[in-house]
Design brief:
Distance between the termini: 22 Å
Shape: globular
Radius of gyration: 31 Å
Structural class: mainly beta
Length: 971
């Protein structure tokens, strides 16, 4: 981004009141990029012409300056100056003469095709919106090492969904789809597939099963110029997925010089990480190029290093969830348990040694990791070149490879049947009947662990042509993400284990009656099971867009952006496993074929009132109208409008509002059909309305056909206040209301309560199906009837399939307050950002009662805050943050439990070597501590189908205090 239009406080035909001096540390770089950096840091509103700055380089800017002083230093000797035009500063030649293509008072072309997230109009902020901008300086001063850490700090982002901290501890919000240990973003807690992620304004490839989220972990943080977050519906501009908002990662495409970084950190000695990066940039008269490489390596975080990562939660006031599986195991006979004593190999075990009425238990987290080992190589390249005065080409590409390895909870805890032929067989009741033994195979096979590789590529190329005051761009792109993973020690091979348990030879039989390792190693290796999968998500895209002035109004020019896009997506997956039988089995997972998307969009921005018009009570009034029509080859068409309004009643105050609709198209996973997904199964469910207390039903499982896109209506109202009487103060607040309908969901998790709570689930119950309807299901090859229930016994049908079912309405308030002052003893920056959610009203079905789920497990808390304070003087900078997550309820246990609030602090101390030390000039040392006081996550009794743990991975990070030292050298 070379020219950035920001909300300013400029009075008509005059520069604003002087702002306090700020500390700038900008290296030699492209002039347009330097002007943008100062504009962004100071809040000034600047419009720059490409024709004026192309090929010009700005000198280094280091020291404390006001915005005016900074602009003057950057423009010294260039023959350029900033001229007030309304509430903007427009770059002009110092001479009164202009040449074709240069800006004048009524029109000024912008410098870059990349625009602020939330609008397609170049050089303008989105009308009615208020994007969150995390600058390069913000990233450095917070000590973020990864893209996911940057987004985790944003209060509007919810940690539920695909992510490192939810892997294995949550089955909600799409977390199980994260098979390759990536990290997604989940604005407002509406789902990671309801937040659109862009890289330089372009969609990357999807990640996880069926490409249901965007993997942030492949994006190199050192190559980022800034991150823009628009927490508002934006399908009118960007299409599907932009329901909760848009996150745009803007790369350092106009970098001049070289920068190297080296970082080392650890979480109190655990999960040590190393990061190294190099950024090279060159700007020449007609273009430029950037090359960035980043290496990142972090060790796994073992669960046994954190006290709360256990299945035995009694020390925290919870229950003991350790399961009766261990080695040695526990024999089950005659309704009684008999624990096998430890310290023996099962060869001489007698009945009187068994511990009657006792169970041997084990804690699965003693052999698991909370965070995976991650190793990543990322390479980013971008280039641009002017072919003539009016034509330029550009190209960009991001390639990354990430490997991972993590010990996980697997299928190693089993109840096995041991026949009397086993040489170690013992029956506490006597006789020769088979005995059941609960046994944990982990000690024999080793911990279950998943490991794999992710390869991602996102490329784009295009050409831009200036057509008078208009600019037109044609571009094409290719994106792909390939994921491979393998789970070793996934549990014993069932058929091989059964044979080994029945084996009568002690040299080859499997022994579950002794300590781990009592079985011969060759037999253990023979029963070892594994599972592997590989998938590929590919996207081809092409687009054409144009933007420019349409007509003139008294307040300024109406500008119009038009565009058309074509995108093609495809997802394939295959699996190979050795869990049964003598040889591996390979299967191709059935997914819909290629999906083609065609879209057209338009955005119009009209200045209705300007400061020069002298309208009472209105300094400025701007209107934007946008719309997009999108056609999917598999789910039909949608049309989504958006309207935005900015009203500035005074120089200091901006009032804004927006209204629009958004949508999310069903994913490939949602659209799967066939025997591997769908089934019809007769079942007996508890029914208070039945004389017998039970009703035989036919349950429909899988995905319903003909699913439609999810729909949402969003409106916002907010203000931005920058009082001239208090220079440096900036207050922003936004109220939002999201009505999210036709969400794709099912009620399978509550299947056994369906008939008990008919008021909630009546929409999915058919109490009077016809005999012909039931007969048709019974003749289908999809019928699964292990109980042999006759069709005549079925009296109701319960639809448990994924379909357009639920509805959510969320209302809340976003707030950001910042204050910057300068004093002889240093520059001070204070601030507080936060998000308060008034309610998340959820309906399981369209006819069920509404329940407010804010502040419960699986949903955001009502309040998240991040306070900031910074001090800088000369070469020293100290920055601190306080992070607060409010208390909430754990409704997944009975009775409900309260989960305490969580407050952590981060601190960074940085030193930049002054210019008067030539040998070390450009060196910055930073010592960063996150969770400075090592606060454990609040206790939450979290249960899953297979285990339990003492913290909520959706709302807390288990790492504890993490300390890192980073050295940066600018050349």
């Amino acid at each position: 981004m070379l020219a950035l239009t920001l909300a300013g406080t400029a009075a008509a035909q005059t520069r604003p009141a002087a702002r306090p001096a700020q500390t700038f540390d900008l290296g030699r770089q492209d002039l347009g990029q330097a002007l943008s950096a100062v504009a962004l840091a100071s809040g000034r509103e600047v419009v720059v012409s490409q024709a004026l700055v192309v090929g010009k380089t700005a000198p280094p800017l280091k020291g404390r300056f006001t915005a005016d002083e900074a602009f003057d230093r950057l423009l010294a000797g260039t023959g350029l100056t900033l001229v007030p035009v309304g509430d903007k500063l427009v770059l002009r030649r110092t001479s009164a003469e202009t040449t074709p293509g240069e800006p004048h008072d009524s029109v000024a072309e912008t410098l870059s095709e990349l625009v602020v997230t939330g609008t397609r109009i170049r050089g303008a902020a989105p009308v009615g919106g208020d994007p969150i901008v995390i600058t390069r300086q913000d990233i450095d001063r917070a000590g973020f090492s990864t893209a996911q850490q940057i987004l985790q700090s944003v209060p509007q982002n919810f940690g539920g969904g695909p992510g490192e901290t939810t892997s294995g501890t949550s089955s909600r919000n799409g977390a199980p789809f994260n098979t390759a240990m990536g990290s997604g973003v989940n604005l407002r807690g509406l789902g990671s597939n309801s937040t659109l992620v862009l890289i330089n304004g372009v969609r990357p490839a999807g990640a996880g099963i069926a490409g249901t989220f965007t993997d942030l972990s492949v994006i190199p943080a050192s190559a980022l110029e800034r991150v823009e977050v628009l927490a508002d519906g934006a399908s009118a501009l960007y299409g599907s997925d932009a329901v909760a908002g848009v996150v745009n990662f803007v790369m350092r495409d106009r970098f001049e010089g070289a920068e190297t970084r080296l970082r080392y950190g650890s979480a109190d000695g655990e999960a040590r990480e190393v990061q190294a990066s190099l950024v090279l940039g060159k700007i020449w008269g007609a273009g430029g190029a950037t090359l960035a490489y980043e290496y990142y390596d972090r060790q796994a975080l073992a669960a046994d290093t954190r006290a709360f990562a256990t299945e035995d939660l009694r020390a925290f006031g919870g229950a003991d969830y350790r399961q009766p599986y261990a080695a040695p195991g526990t024999i089950l006979a005659g309704g009684q348990s008999y624990a096998i004593p430890a310290g023996q190999d099962g060869g001489n075990l007698t009945v009187d040694q068994l511990l009657v009425g006792q169970d041997n238990v084990s804690d699965a987290y003693r052999n698991a990791d909370l965070l995976p080992q991650q190793r990543r190589h990322s390479l980013y390249l971008s280039g641009r070149q002017a072919l003539s005065a009016h034509t330029r080409v550009f190209v960009q590409g991001l390639a990354a490879q990430r490997t991972f390895d993590q010990r996980i909870l697997g299928g190693n805890r089993l109840t096995v049947s041991v026949p009397s032929s086993n040489p170690f067989y013992i029956n506490p009741l006597g006789g020769t009947d088979p005995v059941l033994v609960r046994y944990d195979f982990t000690g024999d096979l080793g911990a279950t662990h998943t490991n794999g590789r992710v390869r991602a590529f996102n490329g784009l190329a295009g050409v831009t042509r200036e057509l008078g005051d208009w600019s037109a761009t044609v571009q094409g792109g290719l994106a792909r993400q390939q994921e491979r993973y393998r789970i070793d020690n996934y549990g014993p091979n069932g058929s091989v284990l059964a044979a080994a348990l029945a084996d009568s030879d002690p040299a080859t039989a499997y022994n579950v009656f002794g300590d781990p390792g009592s079985t011969p190693r060759a037999t253990i290796d023979a029963v070892r099971g594994w599972y592997a999968s590989q998938s590929l998500f590919k996207t081809w895209s092409a687009g054409v867009r144009a933007e420019g002035p349409l007509a003139s109004l008294p307040a300024g020019q109406i500008r119009l952006a038009l565009g058309a896009e074509r995108r093609s997506e495809r997802y394939t997956q295959s699996s190979t496993y050795l869990l049964f039988g003598a040889s591996p089995f390979t299967a191709q997972t059935e997914y819909p074929p290629t999906r083609d998307i065609t879209a057209v969009y338009a955005e119009l921005r009209a200045p209705l009132v300007s400061p020069t018009m002298g309208v009472s009570g209105i300094q400025a009034l701007d209107l934007s109208v946008a719309g997009r029509i999108e056609r999917y080859s598999d789910v039909g068409s949608t049309a989504n409008p958006k309207i935005g309004l900015d009203w500035r009643p005074t120089t200091d105050l901006l009032l804004r509002a927006s209204y629009g609709t958004s949508f999310r198209a069903p994913s490939f996973q949602d659209l799967r059909q066939g025997p591997s997904v769908n089934a019809y199964q007769p079942s007996v469910l508890t029914d208070p309305q039945s004389p017998s207390g039970n009703t035989t039903v036919l349950t429909l499982l899988g995905n319903a056909p003909d699913m439609d896109p999810e729909q949402a209506t969003t409106w916002t109202a907010g203000l931005t206040y920058k009082p001239s009487q208090i220079p440096g103060l900036n207050v922003s607040a936004t109220y939002y209301d999201i009505d999210y309908r036709d969400r794709i969901a099912n009620v399978n998790a509550n299947a056994f309560n369906i008939l008990i709570e008919r008021d909630l689930y009546g929409e999915v119950i058919d109490d009077h199906p016809s005999a012909a309807t039931i007969a048709a299901y019974y003749t289908s090859p999809l019928l699964y009837n292990p109980g042999g229930i006759a069709a005549s016994a079925v009296t109701a049908i319960v639809d448990l399939r994924n379909r357009n079912l639920s509805r959510v309405r969320q209302r809340g308030l976003d707030l950001d307050v910042g204050y910057a002052i300068s004093a002889p003893w240093g520059d001070i920056n204070l601030g507080l950002s936060g998000s308060y959610i008034f309610s998340i009203d959820q309906q399981v079905t369209n006819t069920s009662p509404t329940v407010d789920v804010v502040g419960t497990v699986g949903n955001p808390t009502d309040l998240r805050l991040r306070g900031r304070a910074g001090w800088s003087r000369g070469p020293w900078t100290v920055t601190g943050f306080v992070n607060f997550t409010s208390n909430y309820e754990n409704q997944t246990v009975s009775p409900r439990q309260g989960v305490d609030s969580w407050t952590t602090a981060d601190l960074q101390l940085a030193y930049t070597v002054p210019d008067n030390a030539p040998r070390l000039r450009g060196v910055r040392l930073a010592l960063t501590a996150t969770n400075l006081f090592d606060r454990d996550p609040p206790f939450a009794e979290m249960r899953t189908v297979v285990s339990a743990i003492g913290y909520d991975g959706e709302k807390a990070d288990p790492s504890g205090r993490r300390v890192a030292l980073e050295i940066t050298k600018s050349w």
